[in-house]
Amino acid sequence: MACVDFKELQEKLSTQFRPWQRSFQFWARAADIYAGYKVFQVRVSFEKDVEKAEVMWERHHEHAADKLYSMCYDMGGFFLKVAQVVGKPDLAPAAWVRKLVTLCDQAPKTPSNVVRLLLEKELGKSIEEMFERFEWDPIGSASIAQVHRARLKGDKKDVVVKVQHPGVQDLMMTDLRNLQALALCLQKTDLKFDLFSVCKEMEKQIGYEFDFTREALAMDRIRNFLSENNKKMLVKVPRVIRDVVTRRVLVMEYIDGIPILNLKDEIMKRGINPDGKIAVAAKQNILKSLSLAYGQMILKSGFFHADPHPGNIIICKGSQVALLDYGQVKELPNSLRLGYANLILAIADNDHIKASEGLRELGINTLSLCDNEKEELFKLAQVMFDTKLPPGVKMLQPYAEDATLKKVAVQAFPEELFSVLRTVHLLRGLSVGLGLNYSCAEEWRPIAEEALYHSGRLKDENLKSRNRRRRRFLRRSSGWRK
Questions:
Q1: Which of the four pLDDT bands, split at 50, 70 and 90, describes residue 19?
Q2: What angle, rounded to 10 degrees, do the helices at 277-295 and 440-454 form?
Q3: Model pTM?
Q4: Residue 170 is among the residues annotated as catalytic for this protein
Q5: Would the pLDDT of 399 be above 60?
Q6: Which one of 194, 307, 325, 386 is the catalytic residue?
Q7: For the segment 32-58, what is each residue's pLDDT rounded down to a tens digit?
Q8: Tell me: the pLDDT tens digits for 196-207?
Q9: Mind listing the GO molecular function terms for this protein (predicted)?
Q10: Residue 183 has what pLDDT?
Q11: What's the pLDDT tens digit per position in 234-268?
């Protein structure tokens, strides 16, 4: 008995100290990476040859990428989500992207005996009673849950069973609090952006992900919305199997396809030139379907899937896109939805004055650190809320000397807009990864106009005038560039 009590005490102490151990591990590694960059900035400043300096930066990015990869891989959990956000082709250094993009589905797997216990406890039946077939080796494991392919008793089609990792919620909340503290440090020193508000919104959004009943309702709502607003579904949304959903288990239809990250390999496997006309047309259709679906969700409904990273996108037959994982969804208040529609029109129209007014309407408070304030505010609006990269630019570098964030400080950023910001940036990352450069503002212009018209903020005569201007614009530009 004493032995049992000692083991229980040992387990309790281990559980209590785990957050402290995890926090120490995070700060030790984060400080090492940060200090490495600060020391290197001083060292590289003595190199006057631009080309040599670029080579030095690339080597340092590779060195830092190894450290960041090790931290995210070893710690898992929330840091796999950090890797998804940071490892985008339009934002992070190329060396980081090459490393971090491989972390999408590398979360530790929950053992099959634990999965069995959790499923039987949640659903109240044995696996054999519920399923005709159950594949114990998961087809994917992410930070919060893992997914198994199976077939329900009496059914002819396969399903996907999503099972939450036990005990993951407490660890992720610890990680988020550490990240909030780091955000406060960074925004006071290196990056003039309200990162703390962004982290607070992440905390709220990720908290929702642990309730799979909420995810099932979100999936149904978005599926119905896209079906009602389009003759042909822009993107496939899995159908929820209603009788087998709990807070920690979600069963949905299985959709066959290939991950978007494997698209280039699949095109080459079929003997098609990945840079040829057929491949480019397919990639344009994929990106256009995704972009229009998001434009409708954000601007027309205000309720949208807020996690379009590559691991959640698969390509089905005929280049149709399927969008998976509805743990992160967001509902914008009407004021923000319509304010964003207004900003989209300002960006699409290249209207600097309306763009700066639109930023203020959304509650984005800025402090100008330059003379050409209106021009830099417009660039800020583009950088934050449009997917198009400036001519000749292959990726955005927020830390560069001539970066907009060095000229305009973002002092306050509404938490609720972070999901829009993140979604636009992930769409931009996908477009860069596919070798395309397009403007979601130009693509979403008609949807924004419709939203403002139905709200009474855009009158008939203004809409007709805008439509004439848009037709002239479309005659001059194809809108999509390789």
A1: confident
A2: 30
A3: 0.77
A4: no
A5: no
A6: 307
A7: 998 998 898 889 888 888 888 888 988
A8: 776 777 777 777
A9: ATP binding; protein kinase activity
A10: 80
A11: 999 999 998 899 999 999 999 999 998 888 888 88
